[in-house]
Hints:
The structure is a homodimer. Helix content of chain A is 33%, strand content 13%.
Amino acid sequence: MPPLHPKTMNDEGGAKAKPRKPKPATLSNSHALFNSTIRKPCLKQILFTFLLVLALYALFNAFFNPTLDTASSIFLSAGDTSVTYPAVKVYLYDLPTRFTYGVINHHSLARGGSRSAGDKSPLKYPGHQHMSEWYLFSDLTRPESERVGSPVVRVSNPEDAELFFVPFFSSLSLIVNPVRPAGSVPEKPPVYSDEENQEALVEWLERQEYWKKNNGRDHVFVASDPNAMYRVIDRVKNSVLLVSDFGRVRPDQGSLVKDIVVPYSHRIRTYPGGVSVDKRKTLLFFMGNRYRKEGGKIRDTLFQILENEKDVVVKHGAQSRESRRAASQGMHTSKFCLHPAGDTPSACRLFDAIVSLCIPVIVSDSIELPFEDTIDYRKIAVFVETASAIKPGYLVSKLRTFTSDRILEYQKELKEVKRYFEYDELDGAVNEIWRQVSKKLPLIKLMINRDKRLVKKEPDCSCICVNQTVLR
Amino acid sequence: MPPLHPKTMNDEGGAKAKPRKPKPATLSNSHALFNSTIRKPCLKQILFTFLLVLALYALFNAFFNPTLDTASSIFLSAGDTSVTYPAVKVYLYDLPTRFTYGVINHHSLARGGSRSAGDKSPLKYPGHQHMSEWYLFSDLTRPESERVGSPVVRVSNPEDAELFFVPFFSSLSLIVNPVRPAGSVPEKPPVYSDEENQEALVEWLERQEYWKKNNGRDHVFVASDPNAMYRVIDRVKNSVLLVSDFGRVRPDQGSLVKDIVVPYSHRIRTYPGGVSVDKRKTLLFFMGNRYRKEGGKIRDTLFQILENEKDVVVKHGAQSRESRRAASQGMHTSKFCLHPAGDTPSACRLFDAIVSLCIPVIVSDSIELPFEDTIDYRKIAVFVETASAIKPGYLVSKLRTFTSDRILEYQKELKEVKRYFEYDELDGAVNEIWRQVSKKLPLIKLMINRDKRLVKKEPDCSCICVNQTVLR
């Protein structure tokens, strides 16, 4: 697997880099160089060398921030307007292979792949919309020197860790066995069981010292597919879950306070051009499954309303390479892209639209959005209440009121935030997810410390609410 | 008022300090100084000066971190294990005087103080256990150069602010009118009404643009006395409240997620000595009101159990300078200090004990503690469930099992964390409170952005829970 982030800046570092000092070799060389031009008197020479060393050392320090020795201290100076915190220390569990590469292997085998016993080439994680689990895992396995801009640092000793990352490929595990047409009988029963693997994972974890220490509260799981980990969710609900939405978790299992909403890994290619209205002739585009369960039932109604509108393209389409190509083409040439709820409030389509600079029109009342502390989605998307969206004519007339200038403004904002949704960009989705994870740490530490000293072990919740005008 | 934090490091800075460069005057002087010793050749001289400038500039940069231009960017380098974030930008409301110095003036007048019309000397905020409101206000009014180590920076333009500090002296306001003995009739009715002032404050705020903008969600109030702001709490419950505990607020008004627990301002003097068992002959000390309301009812039972125990001092005592002197003496010469609940779960006594290096014995099942993400209170205090504490003999026999070494360990830990409870220390309680405030910012921003784009305005809470084993 090639490194996902290009190597930049320098190759130094490591999990526990000390404040760097210029290498003695470099210094002697510089010294010699200048020595040849300034020979006497001795005092001058010494002073000169001293200043040179000082200049080099200080420059080094100025460009590469010094490392802090203690985890809790922060480095600050008077009148300064920035604050330096130590990077959050994350331990990557070395899970038994069955939970990581074993899942990739089973996925490949179930699709006719075969590996000879001697094959040492790395297994390739297959591309799909919930592959954030792969990007986060491979980010942590990279040398620190390549993890440019990361707010977390990997530590090799769990004793040093503040958080524990459990790299189970929970979303891939769900789709190991290919979906078969209803009624068809498989030639032989599947050899892989996602449910068994979920349970085996939790059993393995529950034997680990650091899981038991804080009841999993400082552990981080990726459960990006809304069904991922469903079998064991109650046993890992203390942990930080990286999810796509909260459509299939109860409030006691997941919340905006405890967990993190991560973007889908977009499936169509990023629009390479700039902002423009002329190149986007279609007003509104949608391509996808017309019929969905639960929250997605609205889709059929939207199809009926929209399919005969001028400048509007709505197409039924299933997951395939061909569909993706058609969707890319459509999203790259439309001003607005419809984003109705899928089976759960979120869907990959939103992120496809964002990287296409196609303004998302979100018709999904309970949607949760990634990085919403950083991104004001009103600047990049149009939100329409479901009840309004299904009124004939409403949606299209609303969209026609947007001027070209307003559309260009949205596109500029989309271009600004696009990097947050690019998993393979240098300071993209991966770093932002770690940033979100690191922001949870104070509350996690508070809950851990508090939980241990509480003398009464009663259920007890702390909440933050919106629109709460009713007095109890 | 003298500055509470001694001036250190340098005098430069200001609310929006740019990366500093050495002053030209200084440079010319240094240049001249070295010029006299190195006269030729010209190249050498120029090179020398260049290096000197570089060394000075780089040193400057290394010691005083460069300012970041954009609020959202962070400064990171490869392999580095620290992360630099911009300081959180806080706007200090210039409130009408009645909410700040007016409260001090009324407090003074109600105690026979008088001020001539021409008196320009600053009003002195009176010392009391809930004076964090004064320390935070005066910290923000200080020049940035003196706010060493602060994770927040004051901005003069509200448009630049991320948080808004409302410096109403809510706890002082509660005690403006002296408590009179029950049944006594005051000579004339009090001229000051705390309730009126609370309501006037909220009415004033509700007219402010930046209050309306985010429904007060990015506003910060000090409500340290458990009764402070009680009249208007439902109108400010969206805001961040700095409280002593949650004893008198409902879960929809205050929580560990939204709000911050701040320490009382300790009322007895800090123990100046080091760790020691020999100098502390008393096993357990308590001095305070024997009879309290609600959570404090346990006190009378504890008195009965403890008052005849050997090596134990329990004394009834009211608030007075004399009592404080006796309490100082007692806490400085005891190994353990009893901390039963007051009318609410918290009390100032805990912080008096901490700065006395007297190990707190906390008998208050629902107590919330300041800075619990940073401080593991099990290392500095002994927690005893109320039900056990009131069993005769239990408490004293438990405390007698602690060895001298164990007691010294507790004392060492107390010494380590003491600074968090010192409001007038350079990197003490004030900076730590701002740090706690700044850690709330991501969630505040998330809730603000989310609230504005939600199409359905329904009450909706996000929570984090402990001991939640019951499935719904």
